Amino acid sequence: MSSLSPSPRVVLDGIPAYVPKPPQPPATGVSHRLFLNENPYPPLPSALATISRAASQTNLYPGIFPEQLTDALARKLDVPLSHVVTGPGSVGIYQQLGQAMLSPGDEVVYAWPSFEAFPIVVRMAGAVPVEVPLTDELHDLEAMAAAITPRTSMVLLCEPNNPTGTAVGAAELKRFLDRVPGHVLVVLDEAYFEFCQGPDAPDGVELHRDRPNLVVLRTFSKAYGLAGLRVGYGVAHPEIAEALRKCAVPCGVSRIAEQAALAALDAESELFDQVDRITAERERLREALGRQGWSIPPGATNFLWMPLGDDSDRVAAALERRGLLVRNFSGDGLRITVGRPEANDLLIETLKGLTSVR
Ligand SMILES: Cc1ncc(COP(=O)(O)O)c(C=O)c1O
Question: What is the pTM of this model?
């Protein structure tokens, strides 16, 4: 046998590796998952009934594309069917974007810190990340526009931003989009759209209507509470949408996910009551922690950002000891998902005992 061995693409060297590990024993005691921006409430009874009906058909493949869901989304958003793309979560659509729209050496402009998938999607395609630091935890749209060069083929924009939760207003976003050259694709990730509903909140689907270089991504994972079923969608003009569909994994959205998403769309008013509860809890947390002296930027999502810098490890460890599992961006800050009231009470109580050292 030859001593040569197959080698993965060199670009994968720049991508964090997942190292398989044996399953961990279940944690003892109560713990609160506040690290993935999940909806803390279980699916609504109507969605659960739909899920169990769809489960009885798991011997069958789903459609190559989820046609019922695509149709329902097109009607809800008032866009032609040809503008809707779906995927196994919006991260699935990011992979389609990388395959369909990026070539080695292309530059991709995005803010940092922002959604952790950005550098992975870009590097995976052999494209070049151009990271523009946030200013005061906000997108610096002026600097992002200035970072666009003739080699730029894509701009990634997470609005509101993960992990800071901050949002730029509709007018500022429009001004930025108007400055982006038509050949540069702008991907506007609105994973937290439903939590960001002020009078100045942008609506990417409206913005896309007269902007053929804009793709909007949304998900059923956050407000709709279906993270475990993996279903997200995008809205784009037909040429881009068709390219994305060509790169989709066939049958990538399961029948259970499709049916649950349809049930969630039908139960929107109940879900939006939940969104209101989560938003009210977010503001309660922000005010309580602000009174304790913690600095927390105003957010428009289902999480809070604590810019703790070097203090983030100490605070994350103290929270973990009380069963509060948050996302530690070591050296930068903590991203804390808004949980159920009892988890939020525990968070307020625990942080009260810790003094900010910044
Ligand atoms: C900005 C952003 N986009 C996309 C996602 C992933 O969504 P999905 O579950 O649809 O893949 C997340 C999840 O945390 C997110 O924060």
Answer: 0.96
